[in-house]
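Please think about what follows:
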Amino acid sequence: MVSWRSINSHSAVIRLPTFAFAALAIGCYAGLADHPDQLGGADNADDDGGSGAGDSGTGGDTAADPPADAALITASGVRRLTAREYTDTVRDLLLDESFDGVSLLPLDAPTPFDNDYRIQSASDGLINGTEFLATQVSERLLADPDRLNAVVGCVASGPDDEACMRGFVTRFGRRALRRPLTPAEIDVRLYGVTGSDGALAHAAEAGDFAVGVGTLIQGFLQDPEFLYRVEIGTPVPGEPGVFQLSQFEIATRLSYLVWGNTPDDALLDRAAAGELADGEAIRAVAQDMLADPRAVSRVARFHAMWLGYENLPHGGELSSAMQTETTALVQRVVFDEQLPWHDLFRFKETFVSDLLAEQYGLPAPGSSEPVWVDYGDTGRAGLLSHGSFLSNGLNGFDTSPVQRGKLISELLLCQTVPPPPPGVGDDQPTPENTFCKVDRYAVHSTPGCLSCHVALDPVGFGLENYDALGRYRDYEPDNPDTEEDETQCLIEGKGVLPSGETFHGPAELAELAINSGQLSSCITKQLVRFATGHSELDSVDEDVRRHLLEQVGSGDFRFDDLVLGLASDDAFRYRREETVEEGDQ
């Protein structure tokens, strides 16, 4: 027996089946095509907004083309919008820049990215949060006549103006569900299931066209196909479990990869016109999308999530200045000057005001607004010298060589660090008669500890000259909880990688990571993680990663080369059906 969740809007009641949330949450496709009224069926191809049979956004009857190498098609499940993607999508759809869903929706664990669909769940918090937010954002829209008119796109002649309401449903529905709606889907939203309980009836009853608009918006924003990215595609003959995505599904993949947002009308028009039919065509579209300002914030956030500095512990003006500094470097290297991506880690200038310049020991530019300042002979270079990155890896009031070593090994170099033994949680040992950090941590060189800590402590000590705010220091800070005076402890600042190579500070660390090829390998792994929603890469994912690295080469490459290489690859135009076992891994 199907249970139903009622969503009340003014006097309207829109009912969504609870099974839809459950089915989508576990990433299963089976049975979804049997519910076209909820998820869109193959008859979408009949809609004039489509691009022909097989491009309904959910698959069609046209036979799929085989991929060049089916072994490189990755598994794909149903992906829920992250809290940030949900927020940006609603802002875009309703022209509401003040909307914030991040503070009310359940946040997904960073792994390091927040979009691993295999650990997503359809919780009560999610359902209640989206219901509350849909009501809130709709009511705010209805209270703003100018913005309401812009979103609706037509001026109603009266409360029951069917032509205007139909036009709104058609336009808004295509943006919200990321595909054209079928005539039947449009009619059920206008007239309801009985023919007299839809948005038009509610508007007429209230004597207000806007009431019907509010009903529709609340329904769309709680539709499972809005909350989740559903990919069905067309089966590929001779390749069981492999499906070619429709052009609307490809447009959605592109949009959330490059912009973190729903496809705009221009991108949907390109899908409808068949401009996403092959790898080279997709590459051209993706290149245009990277020139859009939305790509800047998406790429900056990708790096912030990857390297762990999206949320800083300091708050206020200081955190804002650090975020501005790092975002400006990403924009200058990746977008403004299109420099080799590796320059993010060896750039000789940074974007600071007097506040950060003085903190870093740089000449103050005499400005409360940030400007580009040369690092000079300070030993700093690139992103690893920023306070945003150096704010990571803390243990209480001070930095932790273990935590910083873990950050560098796992995130920057993509090395596997085994978890600590059961019951071992404090990474700051306190052997007797020692108070300098280097002596305290020497206990980790004993048998039983060394096998794990050899990839952590020696690496982390290479950044010890930089405190939790990114300031340079020669001596340890005094710990007020101890009797000893730690300011007597000189910091050598020598780091040792597992390869045996030594470094002092972030600039030398960056050069070693670049020259070893580990940084290039790691960025391809992180991009595949981000694009697929797989925090743990399987053998096929790893093959895709290696293929991507082969495309850009072992030397310097630009970040857009990576994105365009991934987007134009067959792996981006197809999906492999994910088994329950894969989803449970």
Observations:
- The longest helix spans residues 316-336.
- The CA atoms of residues 379 and 508 lie 8 Å apart.
- Residues 4-280 form one domain.
